[in-house]
Amino acid sequence: APGVYQLASLLVELDASDEASRILCADALYQMGWVEEAHKLLLVALSKNPQRSPILARLALLQLKKGFLYDGNQV
């Protein structure tokens, strides 16, 4: 996942409007366990295009994971 993240980050730098690279970055961050960073990156991508299903789906999955983590910490 770190190599994928580095490649996707480079692609984002080359073309900041490339949504696929942002999603790839977020997926790599998630796979590395950086859930908060992935969430922030998806929120930025969503702010640029609020009707994108792939972004909304990933945000929903991250929110579910965060909810389970928070509930687990409260037990």
From TrEMBL:
InterPro entries associated with the record: TPR-like_helical_dom_sf (IPR011990), TTC34 (IPR042161)
Domain of life: Eukaryota
PANTHER family, A to Z: TETRATRICOPEPTIDE REPEAT PROTEIN 34
Protein name listed in UniProt: Tetratricopeptide repeat protein 34
Lineage, broadest ranks: Eukaryota, Metazoa, Chordata, Craniata, Vertebrata
